[in-house]
Write a structure and sequence with these properties.
Bound molecules: manganese (II) ion
Structural class: alpha/beta
Radius of gyration: 24 Å
Shape: globular
Strand order of the largest sheet: 1-2-3-13-4-14-20-16-18
Strand content: 15-25%
Helix content: 25-40%
Distance between the termini: 35 Å
Number of helices: 12
Largest sheet: 9 strands, mixed
Length: about 475
């Protein structure tokens, strides 16, 4: 080897495509992992469904619901279900909690269209359901696609009824019709964000009037009667409900080579699933916790968001059982804030810094910082911490890359990282690169999904 070639290898970064670094065995494992991930997505389109699936998977692996005050010893596996909308799963480690815990924190809520409290409207013979969008959606992407209704209605007596219309292959779907191009001239000249307005996100729910009735709103009556037949609910019950419209299609392989996955809700279920599956298999030295949070897309507020004390309460209870202070535990803990990052898209090259972007098939993306306008609102991880994670991932053979979300001053984003760091927990952002993030059909690479899981596993199995 020539002097300069040796120098090149020792000094310069190697940013080869991940496929050049994968072994045959890893390739087979990658495919199997992605099949399991797609199956999870198909049954988990709301945060509540994610929690249900996580509990089912965990119980199959010997986890049980944590009972406050319960004595736990090394190897014990428990979960704490926060109101059916967020969940923490823990595997108790060999070491005491004053040595700290290792956390993989992801979120299981995704952008969607929530139904308003009085959603049902009839207008000129069409019945629609009014929505209030949840999270940062580009409204024009949610029209003219099949949508399903998912969620829960809680009746006045407390009975909860699970609603699902459009998931079953035999089900009808809902949709929001877009304007025809023939009459869309004025709309086409509006700025993109005004092309479809929030108050136009009304779901088409029916057109057939209730027979043998001479009152008004016969189509609405017919729709309410269908809901009543199927779920035993009335219009008043929709007041105490959490119903939303989400895309009515399954996860699909994308590309002629099937190298990518297209699906709704990959932000952030791709990291949630990775963290969950890794935790279910691990036998850690320090106690490992998989945190699946709700409400990240709207600021992590509320009882099920990452700002809630539910997390502290759970870890406090674990600490109490070992006579350890929570503050001591947090001060020695580490959290990988597992949330997606933007994948470089050559179609929109102008918003990315090519030298500091995450690329499809180059593995899980670590972000030292997120934020916007000069890193504002970011938890900027310490160099020492980044070095430690580099070492951990390299030692475990994980394919990873460093990433920023777009060019400086182009926009930005945040995760739950700062909320963990504010608790005095060393935290680093890491996640799968995504194309078309927040769209009804987001795209990830299978290699990157698998490497996100491998990264979570390496972190939980820290040396
Ligand atoms: Mn996210
Ligand atoms: Mn998001």
């Amino acid at each position: 080897m020539s002097e300069s070639k040796k120098l090149r290898e020792s000094l310069m970064l190697d940013r080869k495509d991940g496929y050049e670094k994968l072994s045959g065995a890893e390739l087979a494992e990658l495919e199997a992992y992605c099949e399991r991930y797609k199956a999870f997505l198909n049954t988990s389109r709301t945060e509540r469904e994610c929690v249900e699936q996580a509990i089912a998977m965990a119980e199959r692996k010997g986890f049980h619901e944590y009972v406050p005050g319960e004595r736990l010893t090394s190897g014990d596996k428990v979960y704490y279900n926060n109101r059916g909308k967020a969940i923490m799963l823990a595997v108790i480690g060999e070491e005491k909690l004053d040595k700290g815990i290792v956390i993989g924190a992801a979120h299981i809520d995704s952008p969607r269209l929530d139904l308003k409290p009085y959603p049902v409207v009839e207008n000129t013979g069409l019945c629609t359901l009014k929505t209030h969008y949840y999270g940062g959606i580009r409204k024009y992407q949610w029209v003219a696609i099949p949508l399903e209704l998912a969620g829960v209605v809680v009746k006045k007596d407390g009975t909860a009824v699970k609603v699902s219309v459009g998931r079953d292959p035999g089900d009808p779907v809902l949709t929001i019709p877009d304007l025809l191009p023939h009459l869309g001239d004025k709309q086409s000249h509006k700025p993109l964000f005004q092309g479809i307005e929030g108050e136009q996100l009304n779901l088409l729910a029916g057109s057939k009037p209730y027979p043998d009735d001479d009152g008004s709103d016969r189509v609405k009556l017919a729709v309410l009667s269908i809901l009543n037949d199927k779920y035993g609910i009335t219009e008043a019950d929709l007041i105490s409900a959490e119903l939303c419209a989400v895309p009515a299609f399954d996860a699909k392989d994308v590309g002629l080579d099937r190298s990518m996955i297209g699906a709704y809700g990959q932000d952030d279920r791709v990291c949630a699933y990775a963290s969950l599956e890794a935790l279910l298999e691990v036998q850690p030295k320090r106690t490992a916790i998989c945190m699946l949070a709700d409400k990240e897309e709207i600021g992590s507020m509320g009882v099920s968001g990452m700002q809630s004390h539910a997390f502290d309460t759970f870890v406090q209870q674990l600490c109490d059982s070992q006579g350890v202070s929570l503050k001591d535990c947090f001060a020695h803990s580490f959290c990988l804030s597992a949330d997606v990052t933007a994948a470089y898209d050559p179609n929109f090259a102008e918003v990315f810094d090519k030298n500091n972007s995450a690329f499809i098939n180059q593995g899980v993306g670590l972000c030292k910082y997120t934020g916007s306008r000069g890193k504002s609102g970011s938890s900027d991880a310490a160099a020492e911490l980044v070095a430690k994670v580099r070492r951990t991932l390299d030692d475990a053979g994980v394919i990873w890359q460093m990433a920023e979300l777009g060019k400086v001053d182009e926009g930005g984003g945040g995760t739950v990282a700062l909320l963990m760091a504010n608790r005095n927990i060393d935290t680093l952002d890491a996640g799968t690169p995504v194309l078309a993030m927040h769209a009804p059909f987001e795209v990830t690479s299978k290699l990157d999904c698998y490497m996100t899981y491998r990264a979570m596993k390496a972190v939980f199995e820290e040396k």
